[in-house]
Design a protein that fits this description.
The protein is α/β, with parallel strands linked by helices. The chain folds into three domains: 18-189, no CATH class; 220-318, Arc Repressor Mutant, subunit A (Orthogonal Bundle), CATH 1.10.10; 342-495, Dna-directed Rna Polymerases I, Ii, And Iii 27 Kd Polypeptide, Chain: A, domain 1. It contains 22 helices and 14 strands. The chain has helices at 38-47, 51-62, 73-93, 106-112, 117-131, 134-146, 153-162, 179-189, 202-209, 213-220, 224-240, 247-257, 268-278, 288-292, 308-312, 328-331, 338-344, 350-367, 413-425, 441-453, 463-472, 474-492; strands at 18-19, 97-98, 103-104, 165-166, 245-246, 282-285, 303-306, 371-375, 386-394, 398-406, 410-411, 430-435, 438-439, 457-461. The strands form five sheets. It has a five-stranded mixed beta sheet with strand order 8-9-10-12-14, with helices on both faces. It has a three-stranded antiparallel beta sheet with strand order 5-7-6. Strands 1-4 form a two-stranded parallel ribbon.
């Protein structure tokens, strides 16, 4: 990171609120007689340069006959342009357009490249369901129907407010709002809902997002320990694909990431594994491989494998942040073998090794139970040799990490000093530096001094630590972290005698 702070946490980037998008005129039912079509409006925006031109293109195509009762021509055009501007505001709220860059977003570009309008509507519905709380809204509707409550504009709005849905400003949704109905109209275009009424088409829903409302409900109903265990296995799937995972290794991860939840493990099979198998989340095998490697028999033995149900469920229902904030090219590389990623770090191609370094960083953080929330864009100036991230985690408490990966032979103390300064600015508690090389002795000295004299700590992973990760996976990293924690405890031991005087 440079001294100017190249990583920025955008407003609302980590907001976990259930925000209902503002549709305005961005609706498949408006304007009357010439309703908004995704391919058309996306192309109008794509082909126009800048917001003013985009507004005019939308006005001319959709709203040239609007405001007919306005006697003044200039006044008519002003109202027409406001309606067109509202379309862009709605597109921004639905995350297919970015008002700051005045360009389509990644998902907007994907929708524009769809082979047909029907396919675009399906992709957009999937985006709404997975990224804009659509499945949660359908869950609320299903619950209302199951309890015999009538679903209409008012009753649904009241229920959304009761479940914590808010406006972009963070306030309760107004009783006069119809945004929730406009929101649902896009799901109707993809046949998730009928043209009228609130009956959910479960087959269409499952074809779009890979899970049904029942799957979402089953995930929510898991016990805390079951959810932690399933989430750990899901994380492994996200980075390694479908594979057998030793129960002992998964248990170690759960104990490290959620020690307050995973205090008891003697009933692992009865209370956690068997119910998850019974409900279709995973399969369990008492493998000979597990016994031959000293993993023993009983509740903690054998291997587990994620099922399609676990692989497809929305991560939010397991308490996981999904991978939406991670660059697409990195996300698509996560499931490649770790050995291949390490080999690409040696590439002479800057782009190849830069992407490999980002992939390695995200993979490690995700397996540690952390969520990357901000990146510094890879640039030619660092020759693919480093990548900076901010990551966050929530277990017994919230914690923010400053992370830097360096693909270089030797890391000097200036790298740690820079991260300490940035950690103050971004209010981070942990500094993690990963290198494919080694740290100088001065770096280790300053890391110890940081732990002794402040509430921050620096974790250093060098090529030997990466070799352990390559051999043992995330369990090896947790073992290194545990040793680091014991070291810090020993360093801070003399401070236990410090008297704390009561003030006031």
């Amino acid at each position: 990171m440079d001294g100017q702070g190249s990583l920025e946490l955008m407003d609302g980037e980590n907001d976990k609120s259930l925000v209902l998008p503002i549709a305005n005129e961005f609706s498949p039912g408006a304007p009357v007689g010439n309703p908004i079509s995704l391919p058309v409006v996306l192309k109008l925006v794509k082909d126009a340069s800048g917001r003013e031109a985009q507004v005019e293109a939308i006005r001319a195509y959709y709203f040239s006959d609007a405001a007919a009762k306005q006697p003044d021509a200039k006044g008519r055009q002003t109202q027409q342009r406001q309606l067109a501007s509202n379309v862009l505001i709605g597109m921004d709220s639905f995350k297919v357009y970015n008002e700051e860059t005045e360009k389509l977003t990644i998902i907007g570009e994907e929708l524009l490249s769809a082979l047909s309008e029907a396919e675009a509507n399906r992709l957009f519905a999937k985006h709404i369901l997975m990224e804009l709380h659509g499945v949660e809204i359908l869950r609320i509707m299903r619950s209302m129907a199951s309890s015999g409550r009538t679903i209409n504009k008012t009753s649904l709005l009241e229920e959304l407010n009761r479940h914590g849905f808010v406006t972009k400003a963070g306030t309760p949704i107004s009783t006069s709002s119809k945004n929730h109905l406009l929101y649902l109209s896009w799901l109707r275009k993809a046949d998730v809902l009928p043209t009228s009424g609130y009956s959910i088409n479960e087959d269409v829903l499952k074809s779009l997002v890979g899970m049904s409302i029942d799957d979402a409900n089953k995930a929510i109903e898991l016990t805390s320990r079951q959810k932690v265990f399933a989430a750990a296995l899901r994380r492994d799937f996200d980075v390694n694909g479908m594979r057998d995972v030793f129960v002992k290794d998964l248990r170690a991860v759960c104990q490290a990431t959620h020690p307050s939840v995973f205090k008891r493990t003697d009933d692992l099979r009865r209370a956690i594994i068997n119910p998850l198998v019974s409900d279709g989340w995973l399969t369990h095998s008492e493998t000979a491989g597990g016994r031959s490697q000293g993993r023993g028999r009983g509740g903690g033995s054998g291997t587990v494998r994620a099922t399609e149900q676990l692989a497809s469920v929305d991560p939010a229902y397991l308490g996981l942040a999904n991978l939406a904030g991670i660059p697409g090219e990195v996300r698509s590389h996560l499931q490649r073998p770790i050995g291949q990623i390490m080999d690409e770090l040696k590439s002479v191609d800057t782009g190849v090794k830069g992407l490999a370094l980002e992939t390695l960083a995200v993979r490690i953080l995700y397996e540690l139970g952390l969520t990357p929330v901000a990146f510094r864009e890879r640039g030619a100036e660092n020759d693919g040799a480093e990548v900076d991230l901010i990551a966050e985690g929530v277990d017994t408490h919230f914690h923010r990490w400053m992370v830097q990966c360096k693909n270089m032979p030797k890391v000097s103390v200036s790298a740690l000093a820079k991260e300490i300064g940035m950690a103050v600015i971004y209010r981070a508690q942990v500094i993690l530096i990963i290198t494919t090389g080694v740290f100088t002795s001065t770096v280790h000295l300053h890391a110890r001094q940081l732990a002794e004299t402040s509430g921050q700590q620096a974790i250093l992973i060098d090529r030997d630590g990466l070799a352990i990760y390559l051999e043992e996976g995330v369990a090896g990293l947790f073992r290194q972290f545990e040793q680091r924690a014991r070291d810090i405890l020993e360093w801070k031991a003399p401070q236990r005698g410090v008297q704390i005087e009561e003030v006031g």
